[in-house]
Amino acid sequence: DAMVIQNPRYQVTQFGKPVTLSCSQTLNHNVMYWYQQKSSQAPKLLFHYYDKDFNNEADTPDNFQSRRPNTSFCFLDIRSPGLGDAAMYLCATSRLAGAYEQYFGPGTRLTVT
Amino acid sequence: AQRVTQPEKLLSVFKGAPVELKCNYSYSGSPELFWYVQYSRQRLQLLLRHISRESIKGFTADLNKGETSFHLKKPFAQEEDSAMYYCALNGGATNKLIFGTGTLLAVQP
């Protein structure tokens, strides 16, 4: 089945130790998104790629970076994780931008020790 | 500012009872609104969108611009409807979905 895959499902990292989360898709969608969701809060968009064009949200900390080497893959890099970065990270895709359905991955739960 | 408000964190109903999950939004233009659902141990997925004006799994939602609301309704709740429901807004030409904090629907047998 075509889908959005996130690896790993659970990630534990140490305070200040860089970590990379991975997302891949078999839907051949143009747009890929990264959301952060903390406990009991709404998913919050960090950034997205429309093809190769990177779009950062104004309030996304510089600590968070992203790479999209090709259509299928997108990575979230956290350069120096703090305790406040512990959250569920959701990857999503959509065929085009705007009011198109977003397809979500299962998420990666990040723990910072 | 664009905002989505879901006032209820938890809504508990009995099987067969009507359900209404509330969603209010703040947006100055013409919004595009969605309901996403997350069943236990499953990924977040689209339930319905206002532009489609469709009924999915018995759920409907009508956009009321006067009240800036997009409440989700179902006349007779089923146990399998138990899930987390998120209302979301796409504002204008952006690619951005703004989510509410979600309402956990618990349908009791």
Entry summary:
The complex is a heterodimer of chains A (113) and B (109). Chain A is mostly beta strands.
Overall description:
- The complex is a heterodimer of chains A (113) and B (109).
- Chain A is mainly beta and 113 residues long.
- In chain A, 0% of the residues lie in helices and 51% in strands.
- The radius of gyration of chain A is 13 Å and the shape is globular.
- The N and C termini of chain A lie far apart (36 Å).
- Chain B has 109 residues and is mainly beta.
- Chain B has no helices and 11 strands.
- In chain B, the strands form 3 sheets. In chain B, strands 2, 5, 6, 9, 10 and 11 form a 6-stranded mixed sheet that branches. Chain B has a 3-stranded antiparallel sheet with strand order 3-8-7, with no helix packed on it. Chain B has a two-stranded antiparallel sheet with strand order 1-4.
- In chain B, a hairpin with a 6-residue loop joins β5 (31-38) and β6.
- Classes of the chains: A mainly beta (113), B mainly beta (109).
- The interface between A and B is medium-sized, with 26 and 22 residues.
The helicity of chain B comes to: under 10%
Question: What gap, in angstroms, lies between the N and C termini of chain B?
Answer: 41 Å
Mean pLDDT of chain B: 92
The helix/strand series of chain A, from N terminus to C terminus, equals EEEEEEEEEEE
Task: List descriptors.
heterodimer, A: 113 residues, mainly beta, four-stranded antiparallel sheet, 51% strand, B: 109 residues, six-stranded mixed sheet, three-stranded antiparallel sheet, 0% helix, 46% strand
What is the strand and helix layout of this fold?
The complex is a heterodimer of chains A (about 110) and B (about 110).
Chain A: E1 4-7, E2 10-13, E3 19-25, E4 31-37, E5 44-50, E6 53-56, E7 64-67, E8 73-78, E9 87-94, E10 103-104, E11 108-112
Parallel strand pairs in A: 2-11
Antiparallel strand pairs in A: 1-3, 3-8, 4-5, 4-9, 5-6, 7-8, 9-10, 9-11
Chain B: E1 3-5, E2 10-14, E3 19-21, E4 24-26, E5 31-38, E6 45-49, E7 60-61, E8 72-74, E9 83-91, E10 97-99, E11 103-108
Parallel strand pairs in B: 2-11
Antiparallel strand pairs in B: 1-4, 3-8, 5-6, 5-9, 7-8, 9-10, 9-11
